[in-house]
Structure formats: structure tokens, C-alpha cells
Amino acid sequence: MDAAERRCRSRLAQIAAGEGLIRGTLLERYRACGNPRCRCARGQKHRAVYLMLSEGGRLRQLFIPKTYEERVRQWVANHKELKGLLKQIGEVYWEKVRQRQG
């Protein structure tokens, strides 16, 4: 196992061991609440964050409270990083098969 593969496997293990991960995309929306005395009635709309996920051809969405936003952002980033690491390891093994090694 070469050094690049060891690094990828080590990082994969770190993520899988407990940092948390979730598939999806975070989306910010701005909306008015309907209260005529609220700032949103003057154009300063309220910010809301949603986790979006396509599953079985259907779009699912989940509201993310401000207190969870940073954590969920990290989990989404971890999932994206995990996918990239798996791709890198897959490319290493593709090359091994191509060269008829190991």
C-alpha cells in the first residue's frame, strides 16, 4: 500500500469512526413571515436553512435550526470528502487492475 492510499484510508477511518456524515445539500431560503410590523415586510426577509436530499426520485427537505446549522454543514462536508476519498482509492485499484498488479 503506497503512502497516498494509506492517507486516504486513514482519513476514511476518521470520518467513519465518529465525525458524522450525511448525504444532502444545504439550501438557504429567504421568506416573509406575514407580520405587517416585522422587518420582513420592509424587505429584510428571514433566513432559513434546509437540508435537501433526492431519494427514490423524490426531493426531501428538512429545516435546520440555527443551533444545528454548523454541525450539519460539517456532516455534509464530511460526506462529500468521503466520496472523494473513495474515488481516489478506486482509482488506485483501477490502475492496479490495469497494470495486472496485486
H/E order of the elements? Answer: HEEEH
Average pLDDT works out at: 89
Strand content: 15-25%
- Domain module count: 1
Biggest β-sheet: strands ordered side by side in the sheet: 1-2-3
3D structure, described in words:
- The protein has 102 residues and is α+β, with helices and mostly antiparallel strands.
- The chain has one domain.
- It is built from two helices and three strands; from the N terminus they run αβββα.
- It has helices at 3-19, 66-98; strands at 25-31, 46-55, 58-64.
- A three-stranded antiparallel beta sheet has the order 1-2-3, with helices on one face.
- Strand 2 (46-55) and strand 3 form a beta hairpin.
- Helix 1 packs antiparallel against helix 2.
In short:
With 102 residues, this protein is an alpha+beta fold. It has helices at 3-19, 66-98, and strands at residues 25-31, 46-55, 58-64. Helix 1 (3-19) packs antiparallel against helix 2 (66-98).
Furnish the topology, listing elements before pairings:
Elements (H helix, E strand, L loop, with lengths): L2 H17 L5 E7 L14 E10 L2 E7 L1 H33 L4
List keywords for this structure.
single chain, 102 residues, 3-stranded antiparallel β-sheet, 24% strand
